[in-house]
Amino acid sequence: MVKDNNTSISICILRLSSIGDVTHVIPIISTIRDVYPKSRISWVIGKTEHELVKNLKNIDFIVVDKKKTLDSILEMRSLFKNKQFDVVFHMQKSLRSKLIANIINGRVNVTFNDIETRGSHVIDHFFGFLEKINIKKRVIDWQCENILCNNDQFIENNNLYDLQPFITINPYTSVRSNNYREWSYDNFATISEYCKNQYSLNTVILGKTNREKTRKVMDCFGENSKVISLINKTSLSEMLSVLNLSEFYIGPDSGTLHMARMINKPIIGLYATSNPQRTGPYQKLEHVIDKYSEALDKFSSKKKSSVKWGERVRDPSAMNLITIDDVKAKIKEIIKN
């Protein structure tokens, strides 16, 4: 489907979550805008994720409250009853998204079944949707000038200007069955102490988790005035502002890592159970610690070349392949540059 770029085209993007994948949609929108400046874009998105991107300009957001999925679907059924888009990108595979997809009408519908998904990063998969409507170019623009909000009051209330320079970490990943992506909390505390002693860098801890995991992390860090915990204390917008003030970011595969990528922060990504070529910080892998192949060899008896693209290593010991010295070496690389 090709239209003159002076012609309006209506496109609906169905991508509810996760935070990382929502960040990946932004360059897709930037590219559509570049090719079709008059395009009308709607985005069906989760309520939590919407908070991060709500200030993107000229987007009609249809916000889904996952805690009230049925109510959201009924509202959308009424909204979309007499509406047809030129293109609908079905960019999520889940039962909830399938239910929503059934009520969105498009002259052209593109799903994951229509694109090649092996051997590339998730964001490359998303660009595959554009190729199906003959958009070949890629505009890697996260539109941070629109997304970054003024959170000065939050920063001041938490004494973050006084804490600079600091690094940011998020030791947590999403809660899923057999999701062994987290590194030792004790290791993070050791790295934080190293950054302070060696480079006079303080630490801000980010993330959202339960009380038990919060307590475990803070027990590892102990009483330290040069470490500020913002665990469960930030909105996504505030978290992005904190990341923007930091010198660099350290953490496993999580939405926070991809938010750091948006604002082009140096990222020490910790990868052993998942493949950073697929889910690492897009086009910014120079400081990533990649133990994925080693983990496959040790814990699954499979070679990287033979496993299904995106396959994870399901062993709680795999992240132990990443050592404190590995992270220190990457810190030295960043400081040197």
Description:
This protein has 337 residues and is an alpha/beta fold. It has two domains: 137 residues, Rossmann fold (3-Layer(aba) Sandwich), CATH 3.40.50.2000; 188 residues, Glycogen Phosphorylase B (Rossmann fold), CATH 3.40.50.2000. The chain is built from 15 helices and eleven strands. Strand 9, helix 12 and strand 10 form a beta-alpha-beta unit. Helix 1 packs parallel to helix 12, helix 9 packs parallel to helix 10 and helix 9 packs parallel to helix 15. The longest helix is centred in the N-terminal third of the chain and has 17 residues.
CATH superfamily of the largest domain: Glycogen Phosphorylase B
Helix content: 40-55%
What order do the SSEs take from the amino end to the carboxyl end, as H and E? EHEHEHEHEHHHHEHEHEHEHEHEHH
Number of helices: 15
